[in-house]
Design a protein that fits this description.
This is Transposase. The chain is mostly helical. The chain has a domain of 28 residues. The protein starts with 27 loop residues before the first helix and ends in a 13-residue tail after the last helix.
């Protein structure tokens, strides 16, 4: 059989809206961890800690 000679059917479009997806059950550990981190303002702490290592204008372009 030669390469490129097989006839194949085209795959139809596959699209699922995010709103149609169901979310799975959450784990209690991560729910409590997120609550504790939010209460301690961990996001703000981590952003301030990492801020000196980020460029003022964001990441350089890849183009």
């Amino acid at each position: 059989m030669a390469l490129g000679k097989r006839r194949s059917e085209r795959q139809g479009e596959f699209w699922v809206a995010v709103t149609d997806l169901s979310s799975g059950p959450r784990h209690v550990f991560y729910e409590k961890l997120n609550a504790i981190l939010a209460e301690a303002d961990f996001d703000d702490f981590a952003e301030e800690l990492c801020e000196p290592y980020y460029a003022d204008g964001g990441r350089p372009s890849t183009c």
